[in-house]
Design goal:
Blueprint: E1 9-16, E2 19-27, E3 32-40, H1 49-78
Antiparallel strand pairs: 1-2, 2-3
């Protein structure tokens, strides 16, 4: 039997002085997760707010995804079905620390 669940995500973007911050809030039946992301415009670059929005939103959603995967891993471990541990994870793209 099919089961459908809807988890709404609310994404808020704020741009100020060349910095865009994003907050992604996911509400499930049992909890709320909040992801954060930031994008900064380099002083040499043209300020194009849409690009900052996309980068900050992507980072907030990636943060949210990481939280969900960590919780799922912990819950799997709790029932004896833990996924294999990775020693070194490779980061793709720019990290918030590099922004």
């Amino acid at each position: 039997m099919a089961n459908t669940v809807e988890w709404p995500v609310r994404l808020t973007l704020v741009e100020e002085d060349g910095t865009t911050t994003a907050r992604a809030v996911l509400t499930t039946a049992t909890t709320t997760f909040t992801g954060h992301g930031t994008a900064r415009c380099s002083p040499e670059d043209r300020d194009i707010p849409e690009i900052g929005d996309e980068i900050a939103a992507g980072r907030a959603l990636r943060d949210l995804a990481g939280q969900l995967l960590r919780v799922a891993d912990e819950e799997l471990e709790g029932v004896g079905a833990a996924p294999p541990r990775r020693q070194n994870r490779v980061a793709y793209g720019w990290t918030d620390a590099m922004a």
